[in-house]
Amino acid sequence: MISLLRRLRRAFAPEPVHLDDAEWSRVVARVPWAAALDPARRERLRALVGRFLRDKAIVPAGDFAIDAHQAHVLAALCCLPVLEFGYGGLAGWSELILYPDTFRAHRSHFDEHTGVLTEGEEELAGEAWDRGPVILSWGDIEADLAEPDAGFNVAAHEIAHKLDVLDGVMDGTPPLPRDWQRKWARDFQAAYDALCEDLDHEREPAIDAYAASAPEEFFAVCTEYHFSAPQVLADAMPAVAAHLERFYGPSPFRSRAA
Ligand SMILES: [Zn+2]
């Protein structure tokens, strides 16, 4: 009976999309974080990517068009943050809307000579609320891929928001076992307060000042550092870095020098 059910389920459930070895190698070569994973985690990423491509619609905005390889790269970027959490971390949404150009303008600049902090426009991509789509721009993705250790990873940022909201509230805390959640909230709050304090006193922030705009942005920006510049995060906020290492697994860039 069980095997009959299983056979029926298999007959009706579409299989994950299979990327052949040559295409998977191209994806890995294009995504530095995937290339830096150990072989076991890279294989897990490949399996997640197949399910992502089966379940999520990647919708280019307007007359923008992307090819299959670009879709595979996007899938790999979106699946990286759920390597430890599992595929359930991508639940609750079904569309990735892709704009052609860079619209992420919140990369702030702190001038240490004048003490002036320049902030860009509000983050237009930060609408990853509830059941809405994930919105990314290919321009941002390309910028991240070109400079993977610069502290930015916009795809990880948006997926962090989606993980955050899985428990129904976007507050900088994803669903966690109760004990861990308490420690997470305490350590994140302390680091967030310290960052706000630095900015209030016109001290150069250790991470992108955009993180100070709200607790959920703090979590999302720290997520970017976890993947892109883990040493910066570990030096500045060791407790936060340790939580993220447990939540996301070791950063693919962990062994790199800062
Ligand atoms: Zn955000």
TrEMBL record:
Any GO MF annotation of the entry: aminopeptidase activity
The organism of origin for this protein: Rehaibacterium terrae
Pfam families reported in the protein's UniProt record: Peptidase_M90 (PF06167)
Domain of life: Bacteria
Protein name: Zinc-dependent peptidase
One cellular component (GO) term of this entry: cytosol
